[in-house]
């Protein structure tokens, strides 16, 4: 019996360790900056590498960070019933592309059907000019045909060069000022808010994430991080193409494996992006086979330089930049390269671009480093004089397109998209194809290229075919987008709600103060009314709050005012569970039962009430999530998560704490334990 008691006591000690470990870990996820600073201090003191916690921030709703919520009704009265859903999906795709052009971070666009109406719900967090967004969304989709722009770009004027140099001098002075403050011991996170001009990381203490060796703009940061330790802060400015950086190193991890490969491309008349075809398809296949037979590890680079039609890689001996599996420059080659052993040459492999001979040199696993930074932006030539558009417009557009539809090539069985123009479009298209034989002509929708076919011959008669490696769904989507450009579905704005960034921040501060005040008052009440068990419930409640917030952050729950209300309500329900347990416990003690028996019986008797009450609330939450609007869904989601965590904290954590402390208070407890009076009744 004594040995059994010792084992039970040991398990309870480990349970207490687990409770406080869970509390510390969840607080670390909520406050990663402070936690990482503590980790860095430990690492510097002990020379032991400890993983850092990601410093991503909570995801805030429109009412807390500001933004706009728009609801549109799609007018589908003139669209056949069978095509209405796909037409509305096409409008959603168009709107998403336009909103992306505004630079909105994480817009949320959803379609919904309410009776016979089709609606689009659009959330635009952080947007400043709502009227601009409304104007952009409501415009008719624009379909354009463009040809290559061969005009040389202009150079910067003397005034523009002088302005660029002056602004860069100011930026350098500002960066050095921040660096001196770092050296004087100022907090890195505070300086991020004061100096950094990287809008993507300013609200997250400058946290960029893990950088690999192929991060183009982050290459100087990666080189610095590779030669420093976790917790180090650069004592000189790190200059990249876009900014001056002060860098803080975090942890490290193995990155995604990178493939080193080279290729020789032989294209042919009709292949994609083959500007000067020298072969028919059959001749290209035969030539690729000859090169494959001749190639080996020693001569592959020379063969690529002399024979490859991929001009970008030919000068580098056919070499690709190292790339992750599945993300190569030619998607159609990926599976062949992945399934090839290191050091092997394969081919010919056919893609829409022609025939490839591929040499896979090897695979490496790079180290990635976790980095935060203070970035002071530089002015570049491209900021003053943007790169010249590689495409120039023609007079042919959506107004000349009668219909786009999915067809199948009768000879090959390949899926294609057929275009039918009106009389004006027929003449324009013939002129465009006449001056672009062997050259690509791009089809743009809302300023974005959706297809870049190569003109194989002069096309007359008003009919054209877009060929490619389309699947049926892809071809259907392309035809849908073209028809949406030619015959747009009208949309009407039926609801607009906007919150300014200042008002959102004020709402957040008030919500935090109200929530904190409520939590403190509840904790004080529990300690005064239930004494020692109340103190234990405060510990359990602290674990509950920290775990819930950590879950919100980890799974990306959007916290709105309604969501915070749901969380605060769940705190009340978590307290209710403890109240039920403690009241049952008081009843058992007043009947003269021992402390141990009263605790166990109190949990057993309270569980059914806690379970039934919370289950009914959870059912309501799931119904609200399924059928409610976004604001109601936020309330229901946080309430449901809170209830599930509260059941764990009340039944598991509170029980572990009570079991651990009851041996300190004798067989029947004392006044600290609910004021129970000692009796002489036998143990039950």
TrEMBL record:
HAMAP family per UniProt: SecD_B
Keywords on record: Cell membrane, Isomerase, Membrane, Protein transport, Rotamase, Translocation, Transmembrane, Transmembrane helix, Transport
Organism: Candidatus Magasanikbacteria bacterium CG10_big_fil_rev_8_21_14_0_10_47_10
InterPro entries per the UniProt record, alphabetical: Acrflvin-R (IPR001036), PPIase_dom_sf (IPR046357), PPIase_PpiC (IPR000297), SecD (IPR005791), SecD/SecF_arch_bac (IPR022813), SecD_1st (IPR048631), SecD_SecF_C (IPR048634), SecD_SecF_C_bact (IPR055344)
Lineage: Bacteria, Candidatus Magasanikiibacteriota
Annotated TM spans: 12-35
Record family assignment: Belongs to the SecD/SecF family. SecD subfamily.
Domain of life assignment: Bacteria
Subunit and partners: Forms a complex with SecF. Part of the essential Sec protein translocation apparatus which comprises SecA, SecYEG and auxiliary proteins SecDF. Other proteins may also be involved.
Record protein name field: Protein translocase subunit SecD
Domain PpiC as annotated: residue spans: 153-251, 256-362
Role noted for this protein: Part of the Sec protein translocase complex. Interacts with the SecYEG preprotein conducting channel. SecDF uses the proton motive force (PMF) to complete protein translocation after the ATP-dependent function of SecA.
Compartment(s): Cell membrane
Main location per the UniProt record: membrane
GO biological process: intracellular protein transmembrane transport; protein targeting; protein transport by the Sec complex
Gene name as annotated: secD
CC per GO annotation: plasma membrane
């Amino acid at each position: 019996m004594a040995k059994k008691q010792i084992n039970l006591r040991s398990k309870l000690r480990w349970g207490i360790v687990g409770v406080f470990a869970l509390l510390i870990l969840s607080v670390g996820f909520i406050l990663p900056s402070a936690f990482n600073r503590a980790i860095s201090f430990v690492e510097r003191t002990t020379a032991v590498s400890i993983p850092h916690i990601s410093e991503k921030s909570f995801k805030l709703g429109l009412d807390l960070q500001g933004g706009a919520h728009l609801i549109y009704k799609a007018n589908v009265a003139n669209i056949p019933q069978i095509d209405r859903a796909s037409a509305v999906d096409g409008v959603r795709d168009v709107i998403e592309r336009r909103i992306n052009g505004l630079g909105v971070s994480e817009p949320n666009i959803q379609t919904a059907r309410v009776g016979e109406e089709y609606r689009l719900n659009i959330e635009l967090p952080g947007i400043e000019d709502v009227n601009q967004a409304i104007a952009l969304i409501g415009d008719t989709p624009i379909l354009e045909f463009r040809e290559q722009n061969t005009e040389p770009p202009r150079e910067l004027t003397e005034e523009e060069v002088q302005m660029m140099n002056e602004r860069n001098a100011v930026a350098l002075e500002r960066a050095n000022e921040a660096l001196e403050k770092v050296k004087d011991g100022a907090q890195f996170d505070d300086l991020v808010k004061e100096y950094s001009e990287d809008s993507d990381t300013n609200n997250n203490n400058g946290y960029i994430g893990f950088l690999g060796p192929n991060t183009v703009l982050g290459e100087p940061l990666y080189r610095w991080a590779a030669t420093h330790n976790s917790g180090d802060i650069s004592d000189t400015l790190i200059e990249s193409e876009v900014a001056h950086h002060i860098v803080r190193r975090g942890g490290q991890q193995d990155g995604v494996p990178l493939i080193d490969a080279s290729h020789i491309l032989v294209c042919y008349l009709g292949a994609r992006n083959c500007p000067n075809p020298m072969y028919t398809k059959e001749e290209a296949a035969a030539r690729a086979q000859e090169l494959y037979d001749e190639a080996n590890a020693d001569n592959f680079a020379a063969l690529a330089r002399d024979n490859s039609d991929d001009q970008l890689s030919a000068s580098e001996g056919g070499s690709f930049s190292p790339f992750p599996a599945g993300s190569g420059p030619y998607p159609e080659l990926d599976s062949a390269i992945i399934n090839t052993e290191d050091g092997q040459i394969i081919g010919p492999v056919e893609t829409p671009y022609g025939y490839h001979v591929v040499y896979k040199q090897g695979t490496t696993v790079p180290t990635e480093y976790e980095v935060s930074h203070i970035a002071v932006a530089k002015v570049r030539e491209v900021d003053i004089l943007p790169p010249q558009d590689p495409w120039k417009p023609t007079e042919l557009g959506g107004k000349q397109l009668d219909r786009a539809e999915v067809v199948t090539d009768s000879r090959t069985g390949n899926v294609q998209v057929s275009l039918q123009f009106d009389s004006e479009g027929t003449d324009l298209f013939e002129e465009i194809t006449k001056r672009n034989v062997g050259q690509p002509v791009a089809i743009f929708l809302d300023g974005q290229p959706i297809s870049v076919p190569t003109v194989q011959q002069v096309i007359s008669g008003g009919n054209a075919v877009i060929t490619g490696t389309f699947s049926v769904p892809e071809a259907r989507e392309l035809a849908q987008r073209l028809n949406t450009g030619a015959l747009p579905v009208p949309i009407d704005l039926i609801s607009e709600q906007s919150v300014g960034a200042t008002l959102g921040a004020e709402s957040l501060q008030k919500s935090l103060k109200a929530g904190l005040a409520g939590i403190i008052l509840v904790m004080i009440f529990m300690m005064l009314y239930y004494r020692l068990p109340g103190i234990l419930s405060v510990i359990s409640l602290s674990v509950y709050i920290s775990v819930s917030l950590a879950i919100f952050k980890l799974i990306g729950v959007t916290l709105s005012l309604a969501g915070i209300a749901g969380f605060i309500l769940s705190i009340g329900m978590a307290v209710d569970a403890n109240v039920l347990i403690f009241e049952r416990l008081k009843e058992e003690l007043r009947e003269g039962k021992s402390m141990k028996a009263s605790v166990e019986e109190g949990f057993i008797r309270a569980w059914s009430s806690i379970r039934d009450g919370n289950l009914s609330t959870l059912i309501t939450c799931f119904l609200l999530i399924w059928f409610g609007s976004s604001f109601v869904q936020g309330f229901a989601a946080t309430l449901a998560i809170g209830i599930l965590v509260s059941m764990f904290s009340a039944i598991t954590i509170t029980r572990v704490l009570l079991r651990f402390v009851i041996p300190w208070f004798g067989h029947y407890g004392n006044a600290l334990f609910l004021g129970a009076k000692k009796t002489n009744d036998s143990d039950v």
